[in-house]
Specification:
Blueprint: H1 2-18, E1 21-24, H2 44-50, E2 57-61, E3 63-65, E4 74-76, E5 81-86, E6 105-108, E7 135-137, E8 147-151, E9 154-156, E10 164-166, E11 177-181, E12 184-186, E13 189-190, E14 196-200, E15 206-212, E16 215-217, E17 220-221, E18 227-232, E19 238-244, E20 247-249, E21 252-253, E22 263-268, E23 274-280, E24 283-285, E25 301-305, E26 310-316, E27 319-321, E28 338-344, E29 347-348, E30 359-360, E31 363-364, E32 370-372, E33 377-380, E34 448-451, H3 471-474, E35 484-488, E36 490-493, E37 499-501, E38 506-511, E39 532-535, E40 559-561, E41 566-569, E42 572-574, E43 577-578, E44 585-587, E45 591-602, E46 605-606, E47 611-613, E48 616-628, E49 631-632, E50 637-641, E51 649-659, E52 662-663, E53 670-674, E54 684-694, E55 697-698, E56 707-711, E57 717-721, E58 724-726, E59 729-730, E60 734-735, E61 740-741, E62 750-759, E63 767-777, H4 812-815, E64 854-857, E65 864-869, E66 873-880, E67 885-890, E68 894-896, E69 903-911, E70 915-922
Parallel strand pairs: 1-2, 2-5, 3-6, 4-7, 5-8, 6-9, 7-10, 8-11, 9-12, 10-14, 11-15, 12-16, 13-17, 14-18, 15-19, 16-20, 17-21, 18-22, 19-23, 20-24, 22-25, 23-26, 24-27, 26-28, 28-30, 29-31, 34-35, 35-38, 36-39, 37-40, 38-41, 39-42, 40-44, 41-45, 42-45, 43-46, 45-48, 46-49, 47-50, 48-51, ...
Antiparallel strand pairs: 32-33, 59-60, 64-65, 65-68, 66-67, 66-69, 69-70
């Protein structure tokens, strides 16, 4: 046994000695010959220039290193791998810190160390000493077959070239493979390619380049591309490159008509050469294209080819958010040779066009997917931590990509699921990266204006104490883009006329006056005990249900929407009265991207249409909204896609109740209307998920349907999922026998209608195109009974509704995890039909359990949370919204949260049978 151990020791010793290691430490005071940490070279330039051993490794201790002069870059010509991040005592790579961003090694082009703290530009001062190239990789013929790694290096402040340069001409050699990992490229500037310029004339099909777990932030180019990868010179080959777990943040293009602020991938060899780009789990945010780029290249990523070559992308689990001038995942002027072949689970605010037929499971972002973009915290919020594509190679290519994320956390969750973007959240000892990422590019935190009818402070809107006391005083019309208005519960009236919304703002109600963010609100009482009511009844003399008397004082209009990206969330909007136009949200100009959420709209009157929306583009989201007890002399909602609208109009409705409204229209209550222009890419798409249409009355003599869909060009897709239509009437009281139809036949039929898991009667003329349906339940309203309560919520007897939905149709990331009451949307594992989930509100007296159930009550809670389950509780951990653990309690079914601040928390409950995380509100 001893001999065996001695032999193993010898073999290990012999193996480690076979690898030549050269040491570099700027603070070394020994012989400076690179033989040990004590005798390390003090200059990387010297280490690269003196040693001639092919395939050696250079280890660098933390510190700052630079070329010997601006025109002589550090030259890697012997196939040397370079590793940073050492303290200067380690004897193996694995002894370095588990945090790859600790002990940074800076390779700087700022030889005088006098650069200003600014984004570099063509006019930057103090740049005459800056090196254009910091590190050049140009192997000799003996070392070109080496596969080198550059690890834990920070390339900063090069000016006029490329910080990392490997750009062979036809006569030069090229490294067989370059892997760049855990590196950072910051504030480099050039006309083009300031961070990296990597060309390959490798002659065999191979995997010549990898960029993993790295950060490129605030690099500026005049005409595009923080970095470029290019195949050149050789034809009829295929290269695969892998770009994964990287953060591309705050990179910028200066020229107005230029784009590709992050990268260009180009196959420039002709023939049948193909460059395959596996671009997976990257985060792209705050990058900036030129101000006048055309739509085909409006992206931080450019694809190009020469001749008959191809550049093909495989896009998976990437996060695009708030990139200026970006409207697509990639930009290219030739989609026949440059496109995305396959894409899975990417997220963005826009609807991608290039390769769209090949993009699966796209997520549309209506708000920041990050914990706090304003402070530079780019960890994804909970909705994007486990919904990536985890099994397909085109989502995350595990055979090539790392097992860790950009910060060296496990790339996958314990259940093998994967999140979106470069950072994988973990609740155990999470590494949080270098910090200070793109600090000069972070957006200013939104201005928050507070309104409280009973505030007694300075009344300047700066806090709840000093809140304005009226919406008129808040002067919403004059607020700048990015502002938020928080309105405390109470009743507010407009004494100065309608409110014009002229900039991109967000207006929230439903506060109790202690919250610091809209996410702190208790959505289960946002329209009841915490209701923020905006009433049109100035004199408080309206008679309930009467739309004729005492209306001379009533406001005729609330909001005039004249800006993009507006959110209205958390209000009760009542008693507006108009003889023309739309009383609640008026839209008279072309605007895009509007969201209405967590709002009750009731007891309003219009002699025309309640919501006459004919000029929207982009997206219109109606989530957790109740429209009840209103009266019009036309329909309720007209949502029209005009011929002048840009690209796609996409409307998503979820958890919406439309009930007990009276109207008089030959198209019913809601009309989805497409213009006459031929497709040209201008598609109208609507999805209605978990929506309830109940007890509405159309006074028209012959039109029965609630929903009308039409298209003058045919182009349109409409989906109804997990929804219900019930007891709707026409001609003053006759039961309707059709719920979805097209009575406006002269305008043409829509292209595609899909109805899934829905109680509805669909008319035979709804479409002349594709009618796709499954699990449509046909009931007779004269004999069947949904057994709803007085608020149209399901009861224990609602057998046609409870657990009759399909979870796959409900996108929690897009629609949220709460029903219209603000309670859990999916209860007892299967979603219900309609806007409400049965029994999702818990009380001490109404708890029934099966063996797999874990329930909390009360929720919201003030002092104590009780856990009800038949399982054995092992431990309970409580996390705040930032992912910080605030409590850890073993073997307890009663959790004292009295010492926690008010807000939202997540209880992770570990039992002998399961591990569940449940959200709770502390009041």
């Amino acid at each position: 046994m001893k001999k065996t151990l001695l032999l193993l020791t010898f073999l290990v010793f012999g193996f480690t000695q076979a690898q030549t290691i050269i040491y570099v430490d700027v603070d070394a005071t020994g012989a400076n010959n690179g033989s040990s940490w004590a005798n390390a070279y003090t200059s990387l330039h010297s280490a690269l220039g003196i040693q001639t051993i092919t395939g050696a490794q250079i280890w660098i201790a933390e510190g700052t290193y630079m070329p010997v002069n601006k025109n002589t870059p550090m030259l890697n010509q012997y196939g040397v791998s370079i590793y940073g991040g050492f303290v200067g005592t380690e004897t193996s790579l694995s002894q370095r810190s588990t945090d790859p961003w600790a002990h940074p090694v800076y390779l700087t082009g700022d030889l005088a160390l006098d650069d200003a703290n600014e984004l570099p530009s063509a006019t930057s001062a103090n740049k005459t000493d800056n090196a254009p190239i910091i590190l050049k990789v140009e192997p000799n013929s003996a070392s070109k077959t080496q596969e080198i790694t550059l690890d834990r290096l920070h390339f900063v402040n090069s000016y006029g070239g490329s910080a990392l340069y490997s750009h062979p001409s036809s006569s030069n050699e090229v490294q067989r493979k370059i892997t760049v990992q855990n590196c950072r490229f910051s504030r480099n500037y050039a006309s083009t390619r300031p961070a990296m310029d990597i060309w390959s004339n490798e002659t065999v099909n191979d995997y010549p380049f990898e960029l993993f777990n790295s950060i490129l932030d605030e690099n500026v180019s005049n005409s595009g591309y923080a970095f470029e990868y290019r195949i050149t010179n050789y034809i009829n080959l295929e290269h695969d490159i892998f770009i994964a777990n990287n953060m591309f943040i705050g990179n910028k293009v200066e020229t107005a008509n230029a784009s590709g602020s992050v990268a260009r991938f180009i196959s420039a060899t002709g023939g049948s050469t193909r460059l395959n780009v596996y671009f997976q789990n990257n985060t792209l945010t705050l990058n900036e294209e030129g101000s006048n780029v055309t739509s085909d290249v409006a992206s931080p990523i450019r694809f190009e080819t020469v001749g008959s070559a191809e550049t093909i992308g495989f896009w998976g689990n990437n996060l695009y958010y708030s990139n200026y001038g970006t409207s697509d995942y990639i930009g290219t002027q030739d989609t026949s040779s440059s496109t995305i072949s396959t894409g899975y689970a990417n997220a963005s605010e826009f609807t991608p066009v290039i390769g769209s037929a090949n993009l699966l499971t796209n997520y549309t972002l209506s708000e920041s997917p990050f914990v706090d973009i304003f402070s530079g915290d780019f960890i994804p919020i909970s909705a994007y931590r486990d919904n990536g594509e985890a099994t397909h190679n085109y989502g995350y290519y595990s055979s090539f990509n790392p097992t860790t994320d950009c910060f060296m956390n496990p790339r996958r969750n314990a259940d093998s699921s994967i999140g979106l973007g470069a950072i994988q959240y973990t609740d155990t000892a999470m590494l949080t990266g270098p910090g200070n990422i793109a600090p000069l590019s972070l957006p200013e935190p939104p201005t928050v204006i507070y309104v409280d009818a009973n505030a007694t402070g300075a009344n300047d809107g700066t806090s709840w104490t000093n809140a304005y006391t009226s919406l008129d005083d808040a002067n919403i019309s004059a607020l700048g883009s990015g502002s938020k208005i928080f309105v405390k519960s109470g009743t507010y009236k407009l004494t100065s006329g309608e409110i014009s919304i002229n900039s991109e703002i967000e207006i929230y109600g439903g506060f109790n006056g202690t919250e610091t963010s809209e996410i702190d609100r208790d959505l289960s009482i946002v329209n009841t005990s915490n209701a923020t009511i905006i009433s049109g009844d100035i004199l408080d003399d309206d008679i309930s249900g009467d739309f004729t008397q005492n209306k001379s004082d009533n406001s005729s209009s609330l909001f005039n929407l004249a800006a993009n990206n507006v959110i209205i969330d958390g209000f009760v909007l009542s008693n507006f009265y108009t003889t023309s136009g739309s009383p609640i949200v008026k839209v008279t100009t072309n605007v895009s991207n509007f969201e209405l959420s967590n709002t009750l709209i009731n007891n309003n009157y219009s002699n025309s249409i309640l919501f006459d929306w004919r000029t929207f583009s982009g997206s219109v989201s109606i989530n957790n909204v109740a429209i009840t007890d209103n009266q019009t002399n036309n329909g309720l909602i007209l949502l029209q896609h005009n011929d002048t609208n840009s690209s796609i109009l996409e409307s998503n409705w979820s958890n919406v109740l439309v009930a007990n409204n009276t109207y008089n229209a030959d198209w019913g209550a809601i009309w989805f209307r497409r213009g006459t222009l031929n497709n040209d890419g201008r598609l109208f798409k609507s999805s209605l998920t978990n929506v309830s249409f109940i007890d509405n009355v159309n006074n028209h003599a012959s039109t029965q349907q609630v929903i009308n869909v039409s298209s003058g060009s045919g182009w349109g897709v409409f989906e109804f999922r997990n929804s219900l239509f019930w007891q709707n009437k026409y001609n003053g009281g006759q039961l309707s026998t059709v719920d979805i139809e097209n009575s406006k036949t002269a305008e043409g039929d829509i292209q595609t209608v899909r109805v899934y898991n829905t109680i509805a009667m669909v008319g035979s003329g709804v479409t002349s195109g594709t009618f796709d349906n499954s699990n449509i339940t046909l009931l007779d309203p004269t004999t069947d009974n949904l057994n709803l309560d007085a608020e149209y919520k399901p009861t224990s007897a609602s057998n046609y509704i409870v657990d009759q939905g399909d979870n796959t149709y409900y996108d929690i990331a897009l629609f949220g995890d709460l029903d219209l009451s603000g309670n859990d949307r999916i209860f007892n594992t299967t979603i219900d039909l309609g806007a409400y989930e049965y029994n999702s509100t818990l009380s001490v007296d109404d708890i029934s359990l099966d063996e797999n159930t874990v329930k909390l009550y009360p929720n919201p809670a003030t002092d104590v949370v009780n856990i009800k389950t038949n399982q054995t509780i092992k431990n309970v951990r409580v996390f705040n919204v930032n992912g910080q653990k605030v409590l850890d309690i073993a073997n307890q079914s009663q959790i004292n949260i009295s010492n926690l601040p008010t807000g939202m928390y997540f209880l992770n409950i570990n039992t002998n049978q399961s591990n569940q995380t449940i959200k709770i509100l502390k009041q």
